[in-house]
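This week, study the protein below.
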Amino acid sequence: MGGSGTNVVRGVGLALLLLGPLVVVLDRLNAVGEMTLFVLAGTALIPVSWLIGEATDNLAGYTGPGIGGFLNATFGNAPELIIAIVAVAHGLTEIVRASLVGSIAGNLLLVLGFTLLLGRTGTIDRRSAAISLGLVAVAIVLVLIAAAPGFHGNPDRRALAELSLPIAVLLLIVRVVVTRYALRRQRALYSPSERERDSWPLPTALIVLGAATVVTAFITETLVGTLQSFANQAHLSEFFVAVVIVAIVGNATEHGSAVLLARRGRVMLAVEISLASSAQIAGLLIPLVVLISWGFEPLALSFRPVELAAMGVAAALPALVLRGGRTTRGGGVILLIAYAVLAVAFYFSGDR
């Protein structure tokens, strides 16, 4: 009976993975409406993101939880990076900023909240958590410098984009320095000889990660291309769709893998995933998108006050919840309530 149930689960998983290529074909043939395509593309990202998370979990068997969390953040944030680049290419600057903010808030409040609530109680690497949350805090302060002048006037004016450029470079340098220190520390703490017996072979895990990331790129292009149509037909602001719906879909990797690992008792790795992912978005994705945008339409880091407030709350609350070095279900509830409050604020904020 158990074997039959496992086969059914595998069959459903395989069917969902095939949804990605199907979405791409339907998009190219214009076979269905944009509303349907948006829903299908969002659904198709979930199993592909799960596959990325599963491969990263196996890689963590070779690297340890700290580097495993970093790898999950690197590959798991591929959807967010691709979403941002495609949106920039289409001139959707508001969508870019909103999706990045939504990803940070989603990782630190929604993903981490579910991880703490549904997982087992355990200890975390306090120094690693402090590094990740500290990087997010630094990014918020630097971004505020570019965002403040954008509170009045055209938020996408050229002067703000030019001001954002050196800030992006500085943020990227900070990220590189911090990442180098963090990875050297993790290598000193964890020996490769401690690899878990059930881990996939290293080449298999790397190939799966690469292939899943490529598929993600195609699906994401469809998702962004149909976002405006979905927002109009669903009577939602484009800002809300980007900061909540697109961000949740883009973070499917972190959602699935973090909660799954927490349920398996691997609390330290689960927490590392959400924290490392938010640090990756704040310290790497944001400056990278700014630099890449100059090949299309220069992007200004002119985040709205509600977006800056959301990032500030998302960085401060996890620091308070995890300050004791242990996870608690009560802390998870606090983070989830905070995300719900932010989602309501996003809904009523509307487009700029």
